[in-house]
Amino acid sequence: MVPSWSGRGKAGIRRPASVGEVGQDEVAVVVAFNDAINAADLDALVALMTQDHRFVDSAGGTVEGRVACREAWSGFFESFPGYRNVFDTIVETAPGQVTADGRSECTFEPLDGPARWHAVVADGLLAEWRVEEP
Fold first, then answer.
1. Which ranges constitute the DSSP H helices of 1-134?
2. 20-132 has which CATH code?
3. Which of 9, 30, 69, 106 registers the highest number of CB atoms within 10 A of its CB?
4. Spatial distance between the Cα atoms of 67 and 84, rounded to a whole number of angstroms
5. What gap in Å lies between CA 116 and CA 99, rounded to an integer?
6. Please, what is the Cα angle at 13 between 110 and 87, to 5 degrees?
7. Closest C-alpha to 27, from 88, 84, 96, 115
């Protein structure tokens, strides 16, 4: 089931109106991870990463490991204040794999626009966060 996105949660963060039973935990982890990105909450973001977390950007650049990803996100939040992702749809595509479609909002034009995110969730944490153009 693909949840519809309606209303805004605490601090203006969009929340799913409903999430199906299948993949609910994985979807919730991805939503929490994205909430941390939207709030530029580095501690919450890192707490949701596996030790060997991998980030892959839309150009194929990769950052691996929780420590390296923390540093990368810290620099990103500093460089692009107000950056946020808005999910239009989110669904578990396979066990432990979630895909979201929507858009990024940023004053830096190359980062502003439609996007797709793929996440791999393992034991309640994000093992991979991959961004691509839809």
1. 24-38, 42-47, 66-79
2. 3.10.450.50
3. 30
4. 22
5. 7
6. 50
7. 96
**Residue 119 corresponds to which amino acid?**
A
* Closest-CA residue to 100 (of 74, 75, 134): 134
Tokens of 13: 């963060």
**8 Å CB contact between 5 and 85:** no
pLDDT digits (tens, 9 = 90+) for 62-104: 999 999 999 999 999 999 999 999 999 999 999 999 999 999 9
Q: Would you kindly state where each structural domain of the chain is located, as residue ranges?
A: 20-132
Total residue count of the chain as it appears in this document: 134
State residue 27 phi and psi, 5-degree precision: -65, -40
The pTM of the full predicted model, rounded to 2 decimals, is: 0.82
Q: Which pLDDT score is estimated for 2?
A: 29
